[in-house]
Structure prediction request, 184 residues.
Amino acid sequence: MEKIDFKSGLTKSVKDGFCYKSFTSDAPCIKRWLFCLLFSLTLFNIACSNAQSTGNAGGEVILMNKADFLTKVYNYEKNSAQWTFEGKKPCIIDFYADWCGPCKRIAPIMKELASEYKGRIDIYKIDVDKESELATAFGITSIPLILFVPVDGKPQAAQGFLPKETIIEQINQFLLGKRDSKIQ
Prediction:
């Protein structure tokens, strides 16, 4: 009978007293276990990277950079004179920073709304520290700043923390054009 000493990586043969040998060379099951673990981690990593790049299929808040903004929302470099929405669905853009307290409070609300309005609106977030050019282009001096972008017409901005009910009213009235904001 053998016992494994995981600290030293050796097995101790009980029958032979103090005869130690490496368990990695004589244990193909450990090699299989390590292979399965690494293979699973690789698949998990691939799945996570695919989920991040597929958009709002799962009703999630999508992290956006400048290139995404130019193709999905508004290409201000190509058309700086007039607002032209590049998307197919209305959207909300949450300009935030990791260090911002109100931004941290609004993040779970945005996640809930992304799930509740899945397929009807897109919800994006932009880190103003990482995408300072976008923040400068829109004159953002205070965060959080929530940009409500309809398919037709100009966007509206709201600065500071907004309760969920207020955001729902804006979604229903401004983005979806419903008169009664209680309807979802």
